[in-house]
Amino acid sequence: MKKTFQIFSLLVCSLLVLSVLGCHKNATAKGAPKTLQESVADLRAALATASADAQNNFNRNVANNIRYGDFPKASDALTQLAGDASLNDAQKKAANAVNDLLKQTMANAQNPPPAAK
Questions:
Q1: pLDDT tens digit string along 29-60?
Q2: Total domain count for the chain?
Q3: Is-contact 108 81, C-beta < 8 A?
Q4: How many Cα atoms within 13 Å fall on the side-chain side of residue 8?
């Protein structure tokens, strides 16, 4: 009887520890995108239901300019895309998020951190 109780107690404690470890969720999984590439991917997914013109504008003017490092042209295209009346609020919000990260990237490129001595 005593041995059975010890085994049962050990089993319950093990299950409690494993359930606490298993319930740990990644806090950044659903947060705002951290990188420009992540935000571009989120915008591409948001535009899946957008008009063909909006998707073409994104692919030709935004994605290609970001890919080849022409950030000012990409920012202008994102501003135009965010002003498109055919987009819903979520799509406009995603476009503005990409534009914000793009502006941050441009500012960081112009003001690099000082070199460590």
A1: 556 657 889 999 999 999 999 999 999 999 99
A2: 1
A3: no
A4: 5
Block residue for tokens 């009346």: 85
Q: Alpha-carbon distance 91 to 45, whole Å?
A: 9
Residues in the chain: 117
C-alpha–C-alpha distance, residues 81 and 96, integer Å: 9
The predicted model scores a pTM of 0.66
Q: Which two tokens stand for residue 60?
A: 């030709």
Segments forming the whole domain that contains residue 90: 36-109
61 CA to centre of own chain: 20
In a domain, 17, yes or no: no
Q: Residue 14 has which token pair?
A: 């093990």
Average pLDDT of the chain to the nearest whole number = 83
List pLDDT tens digits, range 6-36.
786 766 656 656 665 665 554 445 566 578 8
- Residue 78 falls inside a structural domain: yes
Per DSSP, the residues of 44-70 read HHHGGGS-HHHHHHIIIIIIHHHHTT-
